[in-house]
Design goal:
- By secondary structure, the protein is mainly alpha-helical.
- It has a domain at 233-319.
- The chain has 19 helices and no strands.
Length: 319
Amino acid sequence: YVGVERAIKVYEDALQKEGPLPNSAHYHEELAHLYEEQGNSDSAKKHIKLAIAGYEEEGAVYGAVNLERRYGTLDNVIKILVRAAEVKEAAGGGNYGRLLYHQAAEAAEEAGNLENARQIHEKELDSLLRESCWRLDKEGVITLAKKVGNKDKLIAAYEKFDLPQEAFKVALQEGYTDRAMEICFKMSVTEELSKLAKFTLDKGYQNMTLRIYEHAGLEKEAAKTAIQYGNPQKALEICELKIDTPHENGYYGDADYYDLAMDAASRIGDKERRELIGRKAIHKFSALGEFSVSARFAEKLGDNERARTYTLLASLPKV
């Protein structure tokens, strides 16, 4: 007992000296244990609080956490960890800060406060999204984003790791059509864009489907889709633009555009336009020496005599 009294006096005297004391938090913790041993609970509690505050101030976060777990509450453990994480992040210690956020979220889950845990995980996610992707675990970040439940941040995570198709799908499922199209317009691989167009069509976004097909350079698919889903006017616009614009790669010589344009004009009920398109086809394909194609369009227009003439020309040996 005399030893305890003497030890208390030594620590108390040390704390009362002027000037900073580097290990004051440790002294307060030792005093708390001594007062506990002495049965002086009020003094013990006082020094526990001072020790916790001191450890936090010194940056010895786990010293504070361990004492709070033993003598305090989980809520205070969470607050200590979050405060420490914020300090570390502000000082540029992103990795350590994220670890502290993660531990704080786990403590919140342990306390049964799932919403608080989610909010803290969101802080962890925000920190990860600010980091260079080459330093991160892709699957871990995406899993965390799903756990947080913020769709905007899940989209951002997919984009960060160059997964635009997944980002697009989430955006569309959430009804963020403008955001989905922004993602789409950053893409350039035709095959991937075609898959997205089919996805939007399955979800009932026909107009978006047409825009994606056009962006991908798949105007023919756009025209077919427009006709199939009751928008022949759009199909006609797409096809006539291709028909009337010469291209080095020969799009103007693709008979499918003329067929689709004629079909669209028929559905609109514009007979004159249909005939004009058919005659353009006859002229252009005969100029290309594709007489069998010209014959087919002549038949579609009911011009059987001209169809026979072009069929005959097609049968002649090519020079």
